[in-house]
Amino acid sequence: MAHALVAWGVTTSEALVKALKRPDTGLNGQPTRIDLLFEAWNDHSMYIPKKTELLVDAAIETLSQSAKPKTHEPYHLNPRYWKFLQEVLPHDASDLLHILAGKYHFLQLTSHVLSDADASLWATAAPVLARIVRAGVRRHGATHVDAVNACFVDVFRALPRICEAAQVDVTAEFLAAMLEYWRLALELGSNAKKTSKFFIQESLDAFASAWDHAESLGASELRALLMDLSESSLFGPPTLSGGREMQPILDTVASFAFAATTARLALVQQIDVLALFQPGADDTIWIALWVQLCTDTIAYMRTHEPTVLPPI
């Protein structure tokens, strides 16, 4: 039997469960918890019922402890945990992760990693986090859409720090995984309205920084995902779809639309600060103006070089 298991007095599956619950001191020559996890995974001399589920649960529980306010052990910054999960998680672990998403705060864990990771750790953690955050959004996106939107803000803020040229692909995969079930959550009208308002009030500055960074890297796929996110955020509510009946009104605001393209995101933010429009309002003229403003802002972002936004 593997040395680490013997050192912890682990000779049965019951003893393994108890060992995983012990304080992770690593003192007096005892292996750390991550040592125990690797040894238990690689040891085939002892029968462990539902071995994969047990070890994945233990690893994610340990990582989740890092996201708790009073925890000082930065397990989430230990690349060995992410390498372990990358090795152990089955190819199709969606059902397992869906269950664990009801037990642990996957979005909180993701935000914690985003706030503390550097590019090197992100390259190791991102493939696993993509699967974890996908499960978290699938489980909670429809009922806690603002928590998902807040996690997007953490992505925007972290992007210039964690995503260098070598991390573009894993970052794009992570963002695509996060978007999948979030888009479905926006089919609920109240979620779409919350998201539109949240994006304008909370996300714009960080989004602009992330956009500029993706542009500087020449990361077309990442930029396309960010564009998809912004469009879905702004145009989520059905009332912002710009139906045919609004076309005469849209034709009368060409000068306003031109102002939107020249002022870019700053004008979108200023409209919200002045409370000139609130998502979900019944005033069709302001809805039409808002649609035109958002349309031209995004069109400008598609075709122009990134610039530093002026202060509000």
Notes on the structure:
The longest helix has 29 residues, at 189-217. Residues 237-264 and 306-312 have low confidence and may be disordered. The chain has helices spanning 3-7, 13-21, 33-42, 51-65, 79-88, 94-101, 106-116, 119-140, 145-162, 168-185, 189-217, 220-234, 247-251, 254-263, 265-273, 284-303. The chain has 2 domains: 50-236; 245-312, no CATH class. The N and C termini lie far apart (65 Å). The chain has 312 residues and is an all-alpha fold.
Instruction: Tell me, rounded to a whole number, the average pLDDT.
Output: 80
Q: In terms of quaternary structure, what is this?
A: single chain
Q: Helical residue percent?
A: 55-70%
How much β-strand is present in the residues? under 5%
Major sheet:
none
Number of domains: 2
The shape, in one word, is: elongated
User: Compute the gyration radius: what is it?
Assistant: 23 Å
SSE series: HHHHHHHHHHHHHHHH
- Classify the secondary structure makeup into a structural class: mainly alpha
End-to-end separation: 65 Å
Q: Pick out the low-confidence regions.
A: 237-264, 306-312
Structural key phrases:
disordered C terminus; 16 helices; mainly alpha; single chain; 2 domains; 312 residues
